[in-house]
Amino acid sequence: MKIRSPIVSVLGHVDHGKTTLLDYVRGSTVADREAGGITQHIGATEIPIDTINKICGNFIARLSIKDTIPGLFFIDTPGHAAFTSLRKRGGALADLAILIVDINEGFKPQTYEAINILKMYKTPFIVVANKIDRIFGWEVHEGASFMESFKQQAPVVQTELDLKVYDLVGKLHEEGFQSERFDRVNDFSSQISIIPICAKSGEGIVELIAMLLGLAQEYLTEQLEIHEDAPAKGTVLEVKEETGLGVTVDSIIYDGVIRDGDEIALMDTNNLVKTKIRSILRPLPLEEMRDSKKKFKKVDEVVAAAGIKITAPNLDDVVSGSPLRVLSDEEDAEAELLKELEDITVDTDDEGLFVKADTLGSLEAVVHLLKEMDIPIRSAEIGDVSKRDVIDASIAKDENIEHGVIIAFNVKVHPKAENDLSNSGVKLFAGDVIYQITEDYEAWVQERKEAQKKQWLESIIKPAKLMILPKLIFRQSKPAICGIEVEAGTVKQGYSLMNANGDYVGTIASMEDKGETLTAISRGQRVAMAINDAIAGKDFEEGDSLFVDIPEKHYKILEREFKDKLNEDEFTALDEILEIKRIKDKDWGKFGLFE
Questions:
Q1: What percent of the chain has pLDDT over 90?
Q2: Residue 39 marked in a binding site
Q3: 15 is in an annotated binding site
């Protein structure tokens, strides 16, 4: 048995300093050369223990950290993507995670996204509060430990930093985590450490690296044991075409050994792909996989943990996030991979919305989040949104409008599907932040429910009361026409009216005020009203109060769903109507056992 380096994933919101942090450790300038200063592709970097000792010096010795851990293996991610696409059987590939937060900006959408993912995979993590140099009045001390630098700051600056740290403590508490500034942590197994740093000046990097090593040594030693002679297990970072090499896969090997010429098994969307390795290419230590200045070195074998590039035939359809297994006579890796394929297959419902994602891992993450929200899923697949997806979602929309939805994470809409999508009425929620997409979907569902509730409320017959004005009966019958005043609620054309005894009076045929025909009138309005079926002097007299005759079903809906939407006079009228109805039927409006 051998102890491998722990795999550390760096997560956080765009521009909060993920790559800059690793640049300081590597002594490289990857961040400066990237488009817009933002990580564009997944990368992985090995930091050997010798380099860590140079960075941390005596600090590690003071913490009694032994040299049992051979180093740290960092995965740099565009926000969160590698974390969801990088998976191994039973969870995420990362052993530890760094959640990097701009101490001045606090939590942002992708911060919450990262926390959701960390919860999902139950991954231990450290919070790095970056950009302390931007706190007003902070004096930079290049390469110093946080504690050394902090002691040399003015008291007002120290207080400001602590306030910002406690803002993060509060946010983490809201997410279900106990946390504290690292030097005040009492129990590292139950509290999240917050380490303030400046990735540019290197302040606090010493404590961060030491903390990662300490946590790995204390809690992960068993997890980091590998069989260095066993056939390799790994996961695919990216599949891409390289000039002169053809289609290649960037992979992380987390167990065993992989050799030039090995037969390997991977996965496309639905099937196993078996192929033979032509060559293994490996970046040199401290060289970043996607940006190696010295390119790659061809090697005969690699032992975990390592980031490698593989060239082989038939890699075109392999998906990011696919497991990678070396096939051997001793182990039935093919059967294991088939079992994993079965496990990855997403359980779907007979009805629900449609999910598309870029990798197996991100598909799992999106589905997991939606399932937690009790949202049914009819289909969940890898790949861009196709014409077929739009047609299927359109059919689902006809059955239930809330299921005519496509959640598209980190994928595009196929050009041939764009026109169909715009004409279909299917709702598309697309983006590269799972947290944001699901929030937008929830907001849309809520808006729809509110609109539906409003429409429903408008169709419900609500309580209203009117009075027959004295000396204003213009016609006795066919229809009876008289002057009325609305005493409560809103009266509409077509409503049935009853008297104070609950007897049917007639139906409102029309209402008119100064020659204008009205379809609805409200409290305080006086109009001439024509009432079909009614005979003045028989069904009502001058000065009588008449009530809108509410159907029992409408009363129950009002009582259960919309009572809080009634104003004071409608409330009073509703109570009067209930009393009148119960003169003839004492159980009118009561809820039965199964209602």
A1: 48
A2: no
A3: yes
